[in-house]
Amino acid sequence: MKPNALICTKTGEEYPLNEPIWQSPEGHLLDIRFRPTLEKTLIRNRSANLWRYREAIPIEKDENIVSFGEGATPMQKINIAGVDVYFKLDFLFPTGSYKDRGSSVLISKIKELGIRHVVQDSSGNAGSSIAAYCAKADIACDIYVPKGVSGAKLAQIRAFGANVRIIDGTRQDAAEAAWEAAQRSYYASHCWNPFFFQGTKTFAFEVAEQLGWKAPDVVILPAGNGTLLIGAYIGFRELMKAGITDKIPKLIGVQAANCSPLYEAYQEGLPYIPAITALPSIAEGIAIAKPIRGNQMLQYVELTEGIFLAVSEEEITDALLLMCSKGYFIEPTSAAVVAGVRQYVEHFWEGEKIVSVLTGSGLKAIDKIITVLKSS
Ligand SMILES: *Cc1c(COP(=O)(O)O)cnc(C)c1O
User: Fold this and answer.
1) In the 8-state DSSP scheme, what is residue 249?
2) Which residue, 15, 25, 270, 361, could crosslink 96 as a Cys pair with Cβ 3.0–4.6 Å?
3) CA of 41 to the centre of ligand 1 (A)
4) Phi-psi category of 94—alpha, beta or left, where left has phi over 0 and alpha has psi -120 to 50?
5) Could you tell me if the CB of 331 is within 6 A of ligand 1?
6) How far apart are CA 119 and CA 165, in angstroms?
7) 120 and 148 in contact (C-beta within 8 Å)?
8) Which of 219, 204, 291 is nearest to 256 (CA)?
9) Is the CB of 97 under 6 A from ligand 1?
10) C-alpha 285 to ligand 1 mean position (Å)
11) CA of 1 to the centre of ligand 1 (A)
């Protein structure tokens, strides 16, 4: 058994970490086995960005790192329904969302592999993030987006010089078109590509470090495609294996009730993701009807004895207005997570230390926020 490998999630077949593949030859999802080094004394003297955990990130050569100095976002205590909750301010990333954690690592790997063209699909934030890192690394990218994507996110993708492919259909249709194109290119997908999660796992490292190298009791995260949720699980597991922390926090996944396949699976005790009828949600970033890593999310949440929550459109807009009233300008998708925190605090809280996240900037969704303000 090699210490580092790409592993097929279905067959367990292994492939070298440097093979330029994003799926198994049979089309299954890949995971990564990688033994990280996490040394507190080494990390302490490094610059305040996510590359301070350099030895825990599977990029071989420093010269391949594509970075804007992102990461090490502040963590602030915010009172939600009477309880102090620690929020990571991940809307402060260079492109305005936490997706930059994953993009910095994934595009570094793509540079290391010598790949010159990638495809990606997105409801906006993953696309604008991948486009920015591709611009920095001088890699060409085609970004597939569904019709009706937020104007600010689309402008960002275009501004970075990506080829925008607007698909006349749903978010799922855009994903399928990109998947099709990726059969002849390399898929820089935040869902398929396992290197993306090697970036989002730094969320867990930062949380633990900011709490004095301790894991919190509960972490409340968005659950769309699960890029942050799965990454956080990987990160907390690595911290525990390294002997730095003594537990993996309970992971709570928040979905919009209008599009909540994971919540339904959890509620009904299903071992798979049911087909659902999705309604539109103002939380566009988590409105994912068929999350390809859905089973993995169910499994990780269950392993930590966590739960899934579903929040209504009204709870989301209330949470958005609440956060605006406290000076935090976040996008509606991020407000959905805050609504989840509120539900958790009101119905499930048992005095635990809670960490959550503000995932994306309000500047990404001005139109929607204006509409919410007008009707409030
Ligand atoms: C992508 C995104 C999410 C949801 O992340 P998933 O990986 O789909 O679970 C939440 N908030 C914002 C702002 C996002 O861009």
Assistant:
1) P
2) 361
3) 32
4) alpha
5) yes
6) 10
7) no
8) 291
9) yes
10) 5
11) 34
Q: What's the rounded Cα separation, in Å, for the pair 298 and 132?
A: 31
The region of weakest confidence among 146-155, 298-307, 308-317 is 146-155
State if residue 226 touches ligand 1 by the CB under 6 angstroms criterion: yes
Encoding tokens for residue 256? 């919009």
What is the whole-number distance in angstroms between the Cα of residue 223 and the centre of ligand 1?
7
Distance CA 334, CA 339 (A): 9
Closest atom, ligand 1, to C-alpha of 221? 9
Residue-level length of the chain? 376
Would you place residue 3 in the very low, low, confident or very high pLDDT band (cuts 50, 70, 90)?
A: confident
With a CB cutoff of 8 Å and minimum separation 6, the contacts of 159 are none
* Best of 98, 252, 331 for a ligand 1 pocket test (most atoms within 8 Å of beta carbon): 98
Which letter, b or e, does each residue of 94-117 get, where b requires 16 or more Cβ atoms within 10 Å of its Cβ? bbbbbbbbbbbbbbbbbbbeebee
Task: Write out the two tokens for 282.
Answer: 């103002």
Query: Which ligand 1 atom is the nearest neighbour of the CA of 229?
Result: 9
| Cβ contact 150:166 at 8 Å | no
Q: What is the pLDDT of residues 41-85, one digit of tens each?
A: 999 999 999 999 999 999 999 999 999 999 999 999 999 999 999
C-alpha distances (whole Å) from 136 to each of 101, 130, 141, 214 are 15, 10, 12, 35
- Closest among 72, 78, 2, 63 to 34, alpha carbons compared: 2
CA distance 142 to 163: 5
